[in-house]
Structures are given as structure tokens and as C-alpha cells.
Amino acid sequence: MWGVPRVSEEHLIARREQILAAARVCFLSKGLHTTSMQDLIHEAGLSVGAVYRYFKSKNEIIAAIAATVVGGIQQHIDQVAVRRLPLIDSMSLVLDGVDDQLGPGGYLPVALQVWSEATLDPVIGAIVKEKYEGLRASMRVLVVQAVESGELPADADIDATTAAIYGFLPGYALQRLLTGVPDKATYLVGIRTLLNSRRPADDAAVIQSRQ
Amino acid sequence: MWGVPRVSEEHLIARREQILAAARVCFLSKGLHTTSMQDLIHEAGLSVGAVYRYFKSKNEIIAAIAATVVGGIQQHIDQVAVRRLPLIDSMSLVLDGVDDQLGPGGYLPVALQVWSEATLDPVIGAIVKEKYEGLRASMRVLVVQAVESGELPADADIDATTAAIYGFLPGYALQRLLTGVPDKATYLVGIRTLLNSRRPADDAAVIQSRQ
DNA sequence: TCTCCTAAAACGAATGCTCGTTCTTTTATG
DNA sequence: CATAAAAGAACGAGCATTCGTTTTAGGAGA
Hints:
Two copies of one chain form a homodimer. By secondary structure, chain A is mostly helical.
């Protein structure tokens, strides 16, 4: 290294994140395919060449977005898990996290774009598969806790039950995204009703919790 | 009408369906946006002008696909409902219908494309919203039956419970599309476990049912 | 500390291609 | 034979990406 002309590594990372942030904004409002590189570049406030220094194609940007779009909610779930609350309370907190991602600035609409792309592009598909298996693993912890605490039967099939409980998350998110309902409180009442089915004694509390 | 040069109305309808069938094939393999009009026209075996006689834009074709893509599964659910089976058996049959749509020739991957588009295009969004509210209404019938039969508490919140049960469908479909698991039998064991939670006496039957 | 100098970093005009759509022409029908 | 239906060439716009040029950061030599 003679005439070393490099910029700080933090700067490189920051530039990369600047591009990804712009990509998230664009993808959120225009979608993966309707967003042009020009749109994205303009949003980032950079030049064509600058962006192509950090990502060698649009697909590579999409792949990077796909890899990061699950991170927030998984972190949230892991934080819920360490509190070792009753299952329904954990679910309530988890759904709060989903709500965050549904609201303004949330990435669930982008995630939906990514899911769609995952069924068409094997590279994106592999990334998504890995990430959502990780997310299921986080949810699995909640199920194990519920079995340990006696909320679920001791001989319950952990993976099967995890799949069903995990299904509540996209089940909620998609209903909200596509039809606008239900709100979290209502959905939670529904979950509680299923968990407590054939135990009418609990239902007064359920009704009350809906307010 | 003097020198009437019109072709039979059936012919017109058939041509329209021919175009939509080609669209479904293309959208399934290439996605809504990567499919060009040329692709679609070639798949239909028609000319540019012929297609534009029946649909005035690509968006109009997408909208027509969006409107039809839910039909199959809803019809299936309605048929399940008239049999008035126990809830878990109804769910088993409903999930069979979902499996059909997941397999080769099934339209769930296209549906996922459509959901994605629905968050970006208000016209598609309105169509999707209406269709999936209809689907939820079909699922609601199953919940009402379960309340009537005593499988769910008499004072259960019907709409809340419907939302939760309905969530099982996209919850299953998305897990299968994105991660490949679980299979229907496993997911059903999970649902059964949740429905029977805190009733360990039933679990022997649950385990057995998994095979 | 202050200049140079070099290579990385950033720039943006240019490119070639494909897109959705239009429109004129040809064909087929009752 | 009048007209709907089908055909397909043509078009301008916009796309992702390339590449030659300019700017800038920061170590080396004084």
C-alpha cells in the first residue's frame, strides 16, 4: 500500500446503509419492480456510479433488503421470550411487534413484496427460507415454555404446535394488510378463545379483556 | 344491426378466458411484473391486437386475475361447511383445499403475487379486500357451527375467533410457500393441540392421529 | 506542518434493449 | 359486402447497466 487513498470503513458501511434505507423507502411506496434504479438513486441522493460501486445489480439490493427485513421482529420475539410470560401474554407482546411493522415506517409491506419475489427468484427464496426458519425457531421457544409451564400438554408435538402458533403471525399480518381488520385486541381474543376452547370458565375474562 | 359481422358470444367469452389462462400460466412462472405482454400474448397464441381487444391494459388483466384467484378455495370451503363436521375435521378438509392450491397448477403462488400488488395498487387492493372478506365470511360459518355444537364456548366472540381461525390458512400457506414445511398433517396436529390445550386427556388421540 | 500525488470514490452521459401500447392493414363472418 | 375481429409492424419512453472522466481523501516526502 503506497499512496493509500481509502476512506474510513465506517464511511463505507454508512454509504451502504444509506442505499439500503433509500431502497426500503422506494420499495415501500412503489414496490420492488416499479422502483427504478433512477428512483432509488435519487432517493439516496447519490449518483449512478456510487450506487453501483456498492451493489453490482438491482437484484443484489433486493437480496440485501430481503436479508434484513425480518431482523426487527425476530429481535423483538427473542426479547419477549426471555421474560417467560404466560403464552397468551407473550403472544400479545409479539403481536405488538407485528403491529409496529404494520404501521408507518414498518417493513411488513416490503416483506410481502419479498415473499412474492421469493417464489420466483431462487436466490431470494433461499434467503427468505433461512430467515423465516430462524423466526420460527424463535417462536418455538415460546411453545417450549408453554409446555414446561403446563399451559400446553406435556406430550404436545413441539414442532407441530410451533407451526400452528407461528401461523398466527402471518395470519394476522396478512389480514391487516389486505382487509384492514382485525385489530390486535380482537385477534388476541380469538387466539385466547381457541387456546381455552371447551373451558367456558375462562371466557368472562376473555370478554373483559377485549374491553 | 345490418350487416351483422359478430362472432358468437360464447366465442368472445372463450377468447377472454383463453387470455386469462395464459396470464395465469405466465404469472405463475414469471410473476406479474416480469411477465411482458409479449410473453402473455405468445402463451395465449394470439396477436397483440387480439389481446388488446379484450383487455385495454396489462393492469386490467392483473385485476381480472386478482378477482378470480380466490374463487376455487372459497367454493371448497363452502362445500365443507354444508357437511357440518366437527371443527377439526372441517379444518382438515379446508387445508386439503389449500394444499390443492399449493401444488402444481394451484394458484396460491399467483395469489401471493396479487397480495403483494394489492398493497401498491388501490384498484387491486379493493378487489382483494372484497374477495378475502368473502373468504373470511365462509370461514365464519365454520366458527358459528363450532359454537352451536359446543366445541367453542357459547359466548365466544364469533368475529374474533373467526379472525384467529382464518389466520391459520395464510399461516399454513405462507409457511409452505416460503419454507416448504410443515405438511398438512403436522400443521393439523398443531391446530388440534391448541384447540385442546389444557385438556391432556385428549392428547393420546392427537398423537395417534398424526399417524 | 504543508504539499504533492495516487488511487479510491463518485459522477453522469451514453448505450442498447425491451417494454406497453397504438394504429393501420388484413381476414373472416353472417 | 359491411363490419367486427384479428393481426403485427411501428413507436416513444424508460429501463438497468457500462464506462470514461472528475473529484477527493489521506499518506509520503519535505
